[in-house]
Amino acid sequence: MSDYARYQDGVYADATNGALPHLPYDHDELRDRAREILDPGPFGYVEGSAGRERTADANVEAFSRYALRPRGLRPGAENAGDTGVTLFGERYPSPLLTAPVGVLEQVHPESERALARGANALGVPVVLSTAASTSMEEVAEVADSWWYQLYWPGDDELAESFVRRATAAGARAIVVTTDTSRLGWRPRDLSQGHLPFLRGQGTANYYGDPVFRSRLKEEPEPGGVLTEAVLHFLGSFSNRALSTDNIARIREWTDLPVLVKGVVRADEAEELVDAGIDGIVVSNHGGRQVDAAVAALDALPEVVEAVGDRAEVLFDSGVRSGADVVVAMALGAKAVLVGRPWVYGLAVDGAAGVEHVLRSILAEVQITAELMGRDVADLSADDVRRRP
User: Is 360 in contact with 368 (CB distance < 8 Å)?
Assistant: First the structure.
């Protein structure tokens, strides 16, 4: 059993010797530190969301509508607080994964390598974005545990190549994101004219792919602006005709667990499970795709009820603390992906910043679970109530 909670003891012990933490524990403070470091374009890319950003705001606010119900005298509560979870037959030390975030080179020069080192320190799996700045094979050399997130391109042969490469490189699961048939309307990016893909950023998995390269007349040049490779990337990035039939084809390409990310409706979740999908990630892309959409947390209970025990349900969008993780798991999530907080940690202090954010969240998860008298995996609807 991992004892993440002891981190708190170490912070207080160090402080008595005059060594105060150099990174903040409050999400907003960390975000403000990152704002000071990053240029306006990259910061807006990470912080910004679709339209008036009502969905992103709703994601965070939704957690305030749910109240945890601690019970200190529960029988066996003195042994509570185990953070371990089992996903697809594999045991993980915590319920946390890093959500897929692309184009990390605009945040920190070591991008996914720094992310992997920070996550390794806590046993947290990295969910690697298709739009990563580092190829999946290079990430596999650094990350102890990683899943691969697939943006299904317009070219099915390229999609197959991505999945087969990820499988061969040692990914533990494939996560298909289905809510990005095109980029959402993002005013912050528009006002800065900031789309890093136009500069060849976030294209490492494409430029190193044999199928992608076979479509080009010239060798792709990293960092090139509006080159042939960039234009081909832009034209093949998304598949607007994606359906459950397409996704079911992944079974021909890999024997890994397959999840679909971007689901906020019970009917869609049922269709996917009927098609044989192993897991659902309830998510609205952190509010980056559709403005005025349902908060992901509000969608979680109905998806959990619709799926039942036929597939694993995971969650992301709006998670800012360990208590948020506990709420999501009490509402039925088997594990939780967190995104923006660790990105700000990466911007401020590289791998150490990532580790700081993840360690802080996990310490709060364990402390909260102990005070609930529960192991994390045993949290249930009885442990949470919607506020009046």
Answer: no
Inter-residue contact 359 to 7 (CB < 8 Å): yes
pTM: 0.96
What's the number of CA atoms in the CB half-sphere (13 Å) around residue 80?
24
Residues 106-139, buried b or exposed e (16+ Cβ, 10 A)?
bbbebbbbbbbbbbbbbbbbbbbbbbbbbbbebb
Contact 273, 258 (CB under 8 A): no
Q: Let me know if 26 is exposed, middle or buried by CB neighbors in 10 A (0-12, 13-18, 19+).
A: exposed
CA angle 8, 9, 12 (to 5 degrees): 90
Q: Is the pLDDT of residue 73 over 80?
A: no
Q: Does the annotation mark 285 as catalytic?
A: yes
> Which residue in 27, 108, 194, 285 is the catalytic one?
285
- Contact indicator for 277, 300 with CB cutoff of 8 Å: no
Altogether, the residues listed in the chain come to a count of 388
State the Cα–Cα distance between residues 88 and 82, nearest whole angstrom.
Answer: 19
List the beta strands (DSSP E) in the chain.
66-68, 85-87, 90-92, 96-98, 126-128, 146-151, 174-177, 258-263, 279-282, 312-315, 335-338, 384-386
Query: Closest Cα partner for 123 from 300, 259, 3, 302?
Result: 3
**Domains of the chain (ranges plus CATH)?**
6-378 (3.20.20.70)
What does the DSSP 8-state code read for residue 293? P
**149-185: pLDDT as tens digits:** 999 999 999 999 999 999 999 999 999 999 999 999 9
Can you tell me the distance from the alpha carbon of 176 to that of 163, in angstroms, rounded to the nearest whole number? Answer: 10
Q: Are 244 and 178 in contact (CB under 8 A)?
A: no
